[in-house]
Design goal:
- The protein is mostly helical.
- It has 18 helices and no strands.
- Helix 3 runs parallel beside helix 5, helix 5 packs parallel to helix 7 and helix 11 runs parallel beside helix 13.
- The longest helix is centred in the last third of the chain and has 38 residues.
């Protein structure tokens, strides 16, 4: 038992540093020991931790299978806290797969359990998940209050891992809303938290976010520094999504600098990483970038092929966006028909006053 717990602590350390594969291997060793000891509660914890690693790697099916195994054990043990966490985590996987109807149902069920348990950390994660759902629907104004509420809770408790995550999400909202100064402020704070914790995975995300804003501002030297730092981390980790974003950013910089050959090598690598990540929107970005690079190099046949791929992917993403709009409408109708205690609207009303308070604190912070 002692060895299993020591391995779990070691795996947690690898995770904090962003060493996902090392964390997975160590968790797997701990799981084997706990299974041999018939420690069901410990095994469930290992399964959910491993599921989180697979989720970060974009391996949705593997993550979901592990979460479901952990959930079954938590249900057998009547572990309400474990069940609530599993529901929220599974919701995130379904959102990654594009099944937003299932995701919102799981988020809602998990949030109600967290509230019943008065679990502040769990509630903050649930609020952030709901914010991410709105972000996926391109509704940043609805997402922002959820993220601010989650961040305020994490700051009150001094939970720095959550603070770094939520700061990045708040920054992303402000970036989409056009407030780049405030976005960069939150990204800078998130970066500080991630660097203090040694959270390499989280650091990649916030560096890419900062780099994208700096690129848009024409600050090429600063942008490429952030992208290259992110990519250097990605070269040691199995995290294709963040690496793709960094590669696309650097390629755009090289194009603007007139280095077409370097841009081509980066764009081709970005397409490989995007394909491995399973992200359709990333493949669309990579295809559009390759089309631009091939045209600049006078390779019309290659450019045409990438343009056709871009159109195909864009149409697919557009269909997904249309489906999301329909789903959003269906959510609102369904929620109106349910009891307030079972609806997202109810939770929005619950924290309406908190939202005003969060915005007031926000204004005070930026004075």
């Amino acid at each position: 038992m002692f060895v299993a717990h020591a391995l779990a602590l070691e795996a947690s350390t690898w995770y904090q540093r962003g060493e996902i594969n090392k964390a997975l291997g160590t968790y797997d060793s701990a799981l084997a020991i706990l299974d041999s000891l018939k420690d069901r509660a410990g095994a469930a914890d290992m399964l959910t931790n491993m599921a989180g690693m697979r989720y970060f790697q974009g391996k949705a099916e593997e993550a979901l299978a592990l979460y479901e195994r952990g959930l079954r054990i938590h249900q057998e043990l009547h572990d309400s806290a474990g069940i609530a966490n599993d529901l929220g985590n599974m919701g995130a996987v379904y959102m990654l797969r594009g099944d937003h109807a299932r995701a919102v149902d799981l988020y809602e069920r998990g949030l109600r359990m967290q509230e019943a348990l008065h679990n502040e950390s769990g509630m903050a994660s649930a609020w952030s998940n709901l914010g991410l759902l709105y972000m996926e629907q391109d509704d940043q104004r609805q997402a922002l209050p959820w993220f601010l509420k989650a961040l305020h809770s994490a700051e009150k408790r001094g939970e720095h891992k959550q603070m770094g995550n939520f700061m990045e999400h708040v920054g992303e909202c402000y970036a989409e809303l056009g407030d780049t100064a405030r976005a960069l402020g939150y990204f800078d704070r998130s970066q500080t938290e991630r660097e203090t914790l040694g959270d390499q995975h989280g650091l990649m995300g916030v560096l890419n976010a900062q780099g994208s804003i700096l690129l848009g501002q024409g600050k090429l030297k600063e942008a490429v520094a952030d992208f290259q730092r992110s990519l250097a981390i990605g070269d040691t980790l199995d995290l294709h999504f963040e690496s793709t974003t960094a590669l696309i950013g650097i390629a755009h910089v090289r194009l603007l600098q007139g280095d077409k050959r370097a841009a081509l090598a980066l764009a081709e690598r970005a397409m490989k990483e995007a394909t491995a990540s399973g992200g359709m929107s990333l493949r669309e970005e990579a295809a559009e970038l390759l089309y631009t690079v091939y045209r600049s190099l006078g390779r019309p046949a290659d450019a045409l092929a990438m343009h056709e791929l871009f159109i195909t992917l864009r149409d697919s993403v557009s269909r997904e966006e249309n489906q999301r709009q329909v789903l959003r409408y269906e959510y609102s109708i369904a929620f109106q028909k349910e009891a307030l205690a079972d609806s997202l609207n109810y939770h929005e009303r619950l924290f309406a006053s908190d939202t005003a308070h969060a915005h007031a604190m926000e204004k005070e912070r930026w004075r």
